[in-house]
Automatic annotation (TrEMBL):
InterPro entries: Glyco_trans_20. One of its GO terms (molecular function) is alpha,alpha-trehalose-phosphate synthase (UDP-forming) activity. GO terms for biological process: trehalose biosynthetic process. Belongs to the glycosyltransferase 20 family. This is Alpha,alpha-trehalose-phosphate synthase.
Length: 465
């Protein structure tokens, strides 16, 4: 079995239990341990000292990391990855802030990563790059003479061709992406968007079996919906911490239900509309007053990008206004927590909530939707209210599917979730649980690696670009 080399912008913390970091880290770390491997990426530090890559051994896993300079961080991470690619790929052209120097910085860091990794590669390694930070990474490796198989998984959506074509450098980006051998995406919609772009805007040919032919190369482009470790999370949700137990008891005494939302404070997550929908539900169904609390956990993220500080202000104003209108001395309708919560507590809170409210305007997959289902008690499960624009909605049709732009519909479905009879809740939960078990983290990883390892033809030497 060849050695696996994972490349991601942020590396997993191998000093801590990966279970604290989620199913993806667990699955990747397991695979690396099993076959031996390398995890390569940014160590999270920003400094102007020129430093060599730092190599650390953790059992059979070699971790190779390097820091970014201030200029790298500002141009590659904030400027292009999160100021252009993130909004563009989430269909938000209005939030794109393009500067050509940021695109140059993005390419420079991808070249820097490639140059730092290259000396550590063995001739039969397989390399797997993760996410939108690394679109041009394979091209940089190929330019240094790398002939190993290289896969890419895009964790975020792939936009419709016309949207992508409205951005600067779209042709170069997609051309660079073609230096990968296998390209994985979350949903059928993403794969179709990508293939439509190729057909409409490039010389690439989409073959009958779905492969993409470009020049002398054939590239596999497939859907691999990402999943989580369902059993581990389910078990974790039952180990209730004392503070959560006290809160559950109090709500039981008061006969009060709980709606939960857990997201990074990102504009793609549809948080303001979610708060409005909760407020609308209280207005439309007055019996819900004091009968339910909405717990929204939303830690800060990427705050140096303007669009993120804007959403923070908007959320504070909105939660303040709903709470101002409805709060009483013994009831605060929205509990808004602006920080991260340990994973075991999160699991217990999901289990203790009668509705999971997951309403992104656009999302690659949304693991929170899966975690909410995994954490439920099958004998008395809560109900998932899920945006039609989350990648997860492609599989999870037994959730109450909502349009996150329609506040009234969200309010009605939220009410329906809170008042749904037990039998229907159990039926929906059973179907959803079966699906998330089928498409779990392991299935995602094994499925992708099988295709990446499958091709035995050597990668032809590519012309330098
Ligand atoms: P994204 O990748 O865009 O952040 P996902 O829903 O796919 O969205 O994954 C988010 C992950 O981060 C989930 O595993 C979720 O449990 C975790 N997470 C989100 N918010 C918090 C928080 N406040 N505290 C702890 N974990 C969080
Ligand atoms: C999403 C992206 C990941 C990213 C994570 C946290 O899940 O798909 O690639 O690592 O958000 O964002 P951050 O910018 O803090 O790495």
């Amino acid at each position: 079995m060849s050695r696996l080399v994972i490349v991601s912008n942020r590396i997993a913390d191998l000093n801590n239990e990966p279970v604290q970091q989620g199913g993806l880290a667990v699955a990747l770390v397991d695979a690396l341990r099993e076959r031996g491997g390398v995890w390569f990426g940014w160590n999270g530090e920003i400094g102007d000292r020129k430093e060599e890559a730092h190599v650390e051994q953790h059992g059979s896993i070699t971790q190779i990391s390097l820091s970014l300079t201030k200029k790298d961080y500002s141009e590659y991470y904030l400027g292009y990855a999160n100021g252009v690619l993130w909004p563009l790929f989430h269909y938000r052209l209005d939030l794109v802030r393009y500067r050509s120097s940021h695109f140059s910085g993005y390419n420079r860091v991808n070249r820097k990563f490639a140059a730092a990794l290259m000396p550590h590669l063995k001739f039969d390694d397989i390399i797997w790059a993760q996410d939108y930070h690394l679109i041009t990474f394979a091209r940089s490796l190929r330019n240094l003479g790398c002939r190993q198989r290289i896969g890419f998984f895009l964790h975020i959506p792939f936009p419709p061709p016309d949207l992508l074509a409205a951005s600067s450098n779209h042709a170069e980006l997609v051309q660079a992406l073609m230096a990968y051998d296998v390209i994985g995406m979350q949903t059928f919609l993403d794969v179709n968007n990508f293939k439509r772009y190729l057909t409409d805007h490039t010389d690439a040919e989409v073959l009958e079996n779905g492969d993409v032919r470009i020049g002398r190369r054939t590239i596999k482009v497939e859907r691999f919906p990402i999943g989580m470790d369902v059993e581990a999370f389910g078990e974790m949700s039952q180990r209730i911490t004392d503070d959560v137990a006290v809160d559950i008891k109090r709500r039981e005494v008061l006969g009060r239900k709980q709606i939960i939302g857990v997201d990074r404070l990102d504009y793609s997550k549809g948080l303001p509309s979610r708060v409005k929908a909760f407020g609308r539900m209280l207005a439309k169904y007055p019996e819900m007053e004091k009968a339910v609390t909405f717990l929204q956990i939303a830690p800060p993220t990427r705050e140096a990008v303007d669009a993120y500080s804007d959403i923070r202000d908007e959320m504070e104003a909105l939660t303040g206004s709903v709470n101002g209108k409805y709060s009483d001395f013994n009831w605060t309708p929205i509990r808004y927590i602006h920080r991260s919560v340990p994973r075991n507590k999160l699991a217990a809170l999901f289990r203790a909530s009668q509705a999971g409210f997951v309403t992104p305007l656009r999302d690659g997959m949304n693991l929170v939707a899966k975690e909410y289902v995994a954490a439920q008690n099958p004998e008395a499960p809560g109900v998932l209210v899920l945006s039609q624009f989350a990648g997860a909605a492609e599989e999870m049709q037994e959730a109450l599917i909502v349009n996150p732009y329609d506040i009234d519909e969200m309010a009605d479905k939220l009410y329906a979730a809170l008042t749904m009879p037990l039998n229907e809740r159990k039926e929906r939960h059973r179907a959803l649980l079966e699906k998330i078990k089928r498409f779990d983290a392991k299935a995602w990883l094994v499925g992708f690696l099988k295709i990446l390892e499958g091709g035995v033809e050597p990668v032809p030497k590519l012309p330098k670009v």
